[in-house]
Amino acid sequence: MRKPVIAGNWKMFKTISESVNTALSLKSLVANANHCEVIIAPVFTSLKAVADRVEGSNIQVAAQDVSDQLKYGAHTGEISAEMLKDAGCSHVIIGHSERRSLYGDIDEFINRKLRAALQFGLTPILCCGETLGERDAGNAEQVVNNQLTADLNGFADEDVAKLIIAYEPVWAIGTGRTATPDQAQQMHGYIRGWLTDKFGTSVSQGLRILYGGSVKPDNIAELMRAEDIDGALVGGASLEAESFAKIVNYNE
Fold it and tell me: Is the pTM of this model over 0.70?
């Protein structure tokens, strides 16, 4: 049985005090959520403060990105996996569509970031997904295939088994337009089949695949009924503790 994961990506929102207040409110609202793993991803400046406040609870902390560089050095503006671990992170989001489209994160770069995260014991949440144009052209599966093939190039089975994958159709992020449960399941099933072909049944059946793209309290339960959807990577609806808690507690 794959334990579901509900992760909240706070993107570039919230000061340190706002992040802490949201985390503290969330902590009480999801204290009894033992059916899933709960993860929140604040901005870099808030990571340590949030991690300290949720320590000992069922909430884990993720960073929104990581450097591909392993050692200290002249890498202005970068934050290493070791530094994230030291700040209290257990997970890190890598390859989010905004990083790919706005900040030039090519697949080769993402491959190195994944390796860096794993070397320091962080669990990567690897994002993949197609644009609306790519889907309308009938190329959605090919795009995801190309991304995963490059991102995981040279990876051993045991390393891939440590990942979480998040399928995020770019056309559904922040648009209010959500992939239907059938559309989401179709791609999740494709990804799991791809993993089986490349890394074997043991890896593919154990790895969690999350859906990301306008997830809200009123659509999470239906999405979670799909066979290959193992949770959600939530954007805007994770910014308020109450709405995110409703998503976490989708089984109530």
Answer: yes
